[in-house]
Amino acid sequence: MAASPTLLYSEEEIQHSVRGLGRAISRDYSGSAPVLISVLKGGAIFLSDLMRSVDLPLRVDFMSISKYGDGQGSGVVRILKDLDHDIGDERVIVVEDIIDTGLTLSYLLTTLWARNPSSVEVCTLLDKSVRRIAPLEIRYRGFDCPDRFVVGYGLDYEERYRNFPFILAMPGRRPGEPWPSLEPFLHGPPPRET
Predict the structure, then answer these.
(1) Residue 193 has what pLDDT?
(2) What is the pTM of this model?
């Protein structure tokens, strides 16, 4: 019998972390109005909760990017949807749901710096630092994520299950082997392993 997904972060743990990140941003950017930039689609749920935890007159903007290439992290990044507004002289915070190799984010940061903001910082819910290739400075991080495929809270499996309010770690599998169904978790997470 195939292994089942396990609960990695509960809804309560995620919301506690998001509120803490919001308080830190509110403190660090006191007296200013930062721009939060999220990369669609996965980051939208985290951004939605995070911005409600920040007590500043912020604004938000979105980008959508596509990665293509050899699938090993060395492909090219293409911008599919660009920002709606100029960020020149703005204090920018890039809001990511998860960072792993850092290659895509490194490209994005280079692109944003070329637009002359006054500062650019990174806020991520999950930092899969064990997979990092590109050196990055991450000012705000929610959790140091293990090297597992994760689903929920904006993170998808085949474009589905982003709506889980919790995050599941998927079991290991052999290439070509399907993962178990996630349908049973639409009404709640599995119990946490002890």
Answers:
(1) 66
(2) 0.90
